[in-house]
Amino acid sequence: MPTAAPVLLVSDHVDGSVHVVTVPDGTVTGRLTGRHLSEHAGFLALPGGRVACVDDRRGELLVLDPFGEKLVERAVPVAVPAEHLACDPAGRRLAVTTGLGKNTAPWSDLLTVVDLTTEETARVRTRVGEPGVTVLGGGDPLVVLRHREPGALAAHRFADLLAAPPGCPAAPPHELLPLPDDGHGDAQAPGSGHVFAATGEGVHRARKKDDTLVAEAVIPWESPARGWYLRLDTRRPALWSTLRGGAPDPLRWPEWTNQAWRHDLETGRTFLTDLGPGLVFRLALARSHTAFTRIHPDGDELVLLGADDTVRRLPLPAMDGAPRRGGTPWEGVQRRAVAASPGADWVAVTRGGHGEVHIVDARTGHETTRLRLSTPLHHGGHMMLRSRNDGADGDPVGR
Q1: CB atoms within 10 A of CB 203
Q2: How many CA atoms lie within 13 A of 376 on its CB side?
Q3: Is the pLDDT of residue 1 over 90?
Q4: Domain ranges in the chain?
Q5: Tens digits of per-residue pLDDT, 311-323?
């Protein structure tokens, strides 16, 4: 039955399942099996509470309606392994890039574009790598690929890509802007038509002008560290990232420093908040808080940063198989996913390998519910928390 309560989508991409549960009570309202969603491409918020994601095994873009009678609204064939997923501000035109998958080096150069209204789709060849993607503007938007080594922002007209003939032809961009080789992290501001790319130098930005891109001044990190993740704050015009500093050696990950980075797009001011040492990566935006998970051998925690810059820390129970001293934080270990909705005060955090999800009230910092699902949530799984009209679709990049 349709629900008005916030819903949490929980994916175990290894086990091949997706649970849909209401928050905070944890009632399971839907489940998919045999669906191995791309954790890297993530979930993309669409208007009306819908969600897009990519099944990396079946090679399908899924449009899910967790509030409706039928969970899978649409399935469209796309090229995989999915690297990044984005849509235009209207949520109609989508792009999916391909990347590494389970390979040691990037090998696919396929880009898929989809028009959900006309049901047209096309695949073209671009450039081998692990490109980020944004879809800028209305009408005939620009598909902007963020390439590495050599770094560039490559602009393609969506209509040109959609009109490509069969056979996956090569599609050269009609414009290139130079970018450092270490780009990682993408965002766009639909209102102003800006695209942003995180690099070691700072956040590079460009503005859509007709069907071209105009480079603008780089936003500095204002720290010796850098961000590897970038997202738009739909609650106010701001960008967020987590800055990681310290020795780049992954074996020294317990010593990594972490700062919450917020850049106000209206005032141009940047704010930094220390989060503590260890592994911190993705973040989630609740109604009045920004949530981070910090993994460390001395204890994990959920860090809640309030709109007034107050910091609340909630200890989390240890994970079997968590990253250890002397090993890397990536290979063969359990991790945590975090999710929130800008229309609610709930924050969800997974306990990888245990099949548990902690539901926390960000206003109090107290755990309200602990869900126990039927899969282990390998590698922490992946999640999205949505209210039907929470405005999360104002960020048209997959997370």
Answers
A1: 22
A2: 12
A3: no
A4: 1-35+228-398, 73-191+202-223
A5: 999 999 999 999 9
